């Protein structure tokens, strides 16, 4: 079977549990067509680079899929019918990434670093001209 990475963006005005429900529905479609979801990651609510269908933010989800093309095609057909999905992209890959994706790793690194600290003489102390 082929390996795919699939990312979709859901509307900002639905909550995280509804996004999980949508993800479960898509996983069920894959599994009904002799495929399997190797990994599912919820990346959170993020700001979009530009407005899409009057939305400024979106819930991002990554799915690593091991399935035949017919299963992925059926999932994409269902996504096109779903009004809560703003955009999606499916890419065929040679191998699936093990562990966390780069998005979650960079998020964890930012949390580990902590606050930035003192900013020196910038800010309120700047000379007025």
Description:
The chain has helices at 16-32, 69-81, 102-113; strands at 2-11, 36-52, 55-67, 85-93. Strands 2-3-1-4 form a four-stranded antiparallel beta sheet, covered by helices on one side. α1 packs antiparallel against α2. The radius of gyration is 19 Å and the shape is globular. The chain is α+β, with helices and mostly antiparallel strands and 129 residues long. It is built from three helices and four strands; from the N terminus they run βαββαβα.
Question: How would the blueprint of this fold be written?
Answer:
Elements: E1 2-11, H1 16-32, E2 36-52, E3 55-67, H2 69-81, E4 85-93, H3 102-113
Antiparallel strand pairs: 1-3, 1-4, 2-3
Helix pairs in contact: 1-2
In the sheet with the most strands, the strands line up as 2-3-1-4
Number of helices: 3
What is the beta-strand fraction?
Answer: 35-45%
Shape: globular
Point out poorly predicted stretches.
Answer: none
The value of Rg in angstroms is: 19 Å
Largest sheet: 4 strands, antiparallel
Estimate the mean pLDDT confidence: 88
User: Could you say which structural class the secondary elements and strand pairing correspond to?
Assistant: alpha+beta
Number of strands: 4
